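seq:
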Amino acid sequence: MLLHTPEGHIGWQAEGFELPDVEGRLHRLSDYLGGSALLVAFICNHCPYVQTIADRLAQDTDELMAEGINVLAIMSNDFQAVSADSPANMKRFAAQHRFEFPYLVDKDQSVAKTYGAVCTPDFFGFTSQGRLQYRGRLDDAGRGASDHRCRELVEAMRQIAKTQKGPEVQHPSIGCSIKWR
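struct:
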């Protein structure tokens, strides 16, 4: 089912979590706070919206990480029901698109529920202290051509890193609903 993300509760404090990546290494939210900013992206492998933006996401997050902005991606779909989203397929998808950020498994879906994630992709931009300042889309290209796109997420994260405030205008992301148990 196609969904738009709801408005973010700007200023909301990120809830801590500990999730494994596709290799089984544990990552804690607290390990990624304290830098200039943090992007948490809820994505999956099988969603056509994520598939369309995956290479752009990799490019944009590479730039952000080079600037000291931390990035985590979380897969919260029920991969027992959607085998394309299994950890083994997450590993292949991440390699295919050259993801340099940790791609985490939210097997019990508790992090997605706590954060109010509704679709893939769903982007949350936090300050260095974990206060939400952005809940929007990657860019204005959607599933179309990306030659002359407005990189809204990149600009929002740079602004958060510099000022600890997100942009006033934020456009919702659009994607497939999270596949709940």
